[in-house]
Amino acid sequence: MASGARKRQEPTWDPLDGLDIVSFDLVLGRALRRIRSERGMSQHDLAVKASDGGVPWTRVVVTKVENGTRSVQLLEFFLLARALDVHPEVLLTGLGPTEKVELSPTAWADAEGLRALIDPSLTGGHVSTPRTRMLTALAEGALDMFAGYGNFWPGATAGQLLAALDDAGLAAESKAAADVDIDPIALSVLAHRRWGHGFTTERDRRVEMLAATGAPEMGKRVLMGHAARRLLEELAPDIDEAKKIVTKGGSK
């Protein structure tokens, strides 16, 4: 489904290598084409039915959706399921037996895991995220799988890396990482190494300090921006060093 306009973040460590990964748009398009075919509907028929259900599509839009070249908005997804009188998870059945669907640059799901995201009553399947991969590595005694992030913080414990992973998905971490063109997880690891907690926590601490000095008239949003820029300045040497490690292949 379509997301915001922010530039896609490519991970410095690619967890999708060697996997048969397909896009969510392609999975949805396959399922929609199958449903239409099973019901003997033309693309025009489907466009009319979708429009009657509150999704103003044309035949051209249906063609693009079925080909996986046009993303479906979240509300369109649920209205479409209602218009077709199917459970939303039926629209996610276009994944092959060995394929994985890419949920984000660092997350994927198999067929059962994808459907379970929509229908919690379903069990089984797998959704792979940085945290689940870390936990698996710890359980298997294979922490060296994550040497890429460990290289940014030599001597870090498993608990410290997990805490950094938990913070990496926060909005401030993601925005700051985009601003300096680095993986959000790497940025979070560097923040935890320097301050003992995440970027967001340190930013909020600095905002409180600035407000206490009589700067509240600047507005909280302005203070947050000022604090975030200051933190990135402090992290700049660490970020440069991390990028060198990646360039040398040390994060693989």
Question: How is the topology of this model organized?
Answer:
Elements: E1 21-23, H1 24-38, H2 43-52, H3 59-66, H4 74-84, E2 100-104, E3 107-109, H5 111-118, E4 127-128, H6 130-139, H7 147-150, H8 158-168, H9 171-179, H10 184-195, H11 199-212, H12 220-247
Parallel strand pairs: 1-2
Antiparallel strand pairs: 2-3, 3-4
Helix pairs in contact: 2-3, 6-8, 8-10, 9-10, 10-12, 11-12
Textual characterization of the structure:
- The protein is mainly alpha-helical and 252 residues long.
- Helix content is 56%, strand content 5%.
- It contains twelve helices and four strands.
- The protein has helices at residues 24-38, 43-52, 59-66, 74-84, 111-118, 130-139, 147-150, 158-168, 171-179, 184-195, 199-212, 220-247; strands spanning 21-23, 100-104, 107-109, 127-128.
- The protein has a four-stranded mixed β-sheet with strand order 1-2-3-4.
- Strand 2 (100-104) and strand 3 form a beta hairpin.
- Helix 2 (43-52) crosses helix 3 (59-66) and helix 10 packs across helix 12.
- The longest helix is centred in the C-terminal third of the chain and has 28 residues, at 220-247.
- It is elongated.
List the keywords.
12 helices, 434 Repressor (Amino-terminal Domain), 252 residues, disordered N terminus, four-stranded mixed beta sheet, mainly alpha, elongated
How far apart the termini lie comes to 30 Å
- Spans of at least 5 consecutive residues whose pLDDT stays below 50 are 3-15
The proportion of residues in beta strands is: 5-15%
Biggest sheet statistics: 4 strands, mixed
CATH architectural label of the largest domain: Orthogonal Bundle
- Pairing-aware structural class of the strands and helices? mainly alpha
Element string (H = helix, E = strand) = EHHHHEEHEHHHHHHH
In CATH, the homologous superfamily of the largest domain goes by the name: lambda repressor-like DNA-binding domains
Q: What's the CATH C level of the largest domain? A: Mainly Alpha
The multimeric state of the shown protein is single chain
- Report the CATH topology name of the largest domain: 434 Repressor (Amino-terminal Domain)
If strands are numbered along the chain, what order do they take across the biggest sheet?
A: 1-2-3-4
What fraction, in percent, of the residue positions are helical? 55-70%
Which radius of gyration do the C-alpha atoms yield? 22 Å
Count of distinct structural domains: 2
Shape estimate: elongated
How many strand units?
Answer: 4
Total of helices: 12
Report the average pLDDT across residues.
Answer: 83
